[in-house]
Amino acid sequence: MIITNNILASSDVDYTQYMYFNIRIKLPLYLILPSARIYLGQYFKGVVEITGTWFAMLTAMIAGISMAVQGSLNAVLGKYTGQMEATFVVHIIGSTAVGIIILFGLGKGDLSNVLKAPWYAYLGGILSVVIIYGVIASIPKVGVSLATTAIIVGQVSMALLIDHFGFFGLDKVAFTWTKFFGLVALALGAKLML
Fold first, then answer.
1. Can you give the C-alpha Rg of the chain in angstroms?
2. pLDDT by residue (tens digit) across 131-170?
3. What string of DSSP letters covers 112-168?
4. pLDDT of residue 52
5. Whole-angstrom Cα distance, residue 90 to residue 182?
6. pLDDT band at residue 91, thresholds of 50, 70 and 90?
């Protein structure tokens, strides 16, 4: 990748079909790299190209970091308002933020299809309440690191089951002994943090 100090005519960065997972994301250029042209071989189109695998892993890592910070902030809010009340406030703020994002046209989906989803797809909203409340209730008692470790062990365990059985219409990804030993190592790591 070569970066030069030429000013871009385009104001958008588009992650296009050159990615492994064919992920497309459009962001204002000033959020990525102001006053720069970014080249990737012969594919210069005024865009930044990032491989889908790395982009997906970076996104997941940012989500993990955000989760630890969010849990801490939610626990602080819970001390002032109460745990269930903090859960309510957090959801109001989150819904407002997403509403603003959609209002400004940054969402590329179609809300008119919302009623076409299967009934179980709506359970994510209820599970979100369980997640936020669980984090708010656990962090003050056991700390951020131990609570986050327990959350990760639970997430990975359930994710392995969902992958293996293809729950919710998702593609099946077979459970292997390597994954089993990885899960055991993760659980042992959690035990060591007690």
1. 21
2. 999 989 998 888 888 888 888 888 888 889 989 998 888 8
3. GGGGGS-GGGGHHHHHHHHHHHHHHHHHHHH-HHHHHHHHHHHHHHHHHHHHHHTGG
4. 67
5. 33
6. very high
Joined together, the tokens standing for residue 191 give 């035990």
Q: Chain-centre distance of CA 191, in angstroms? A: 26
How many Å apart are CA 16 and CA 50, to the nearest integer?
A: 9
Please check whether residue 8 is in contact with residue 47, taking contact to mean a CB–CB distance below 8 angstroms. Answer: no
Tokens of 185: 């190592």
The answer to whether 90 and 133 have CB atoms below 8 angstroms apart is: no
Helix, strand or coil, per DSSP, at residue 36: coil
pTM: 0.61
CA distance 181 to 26: 39
d(CA 177, CA 156): 15
Average pLDDT over residues 120-139: 90
Instruction: Name which residue leads in pLDDT, 184 or 25.
Output: 184
Q: Give the DSSP letter of residue 17.
A: T
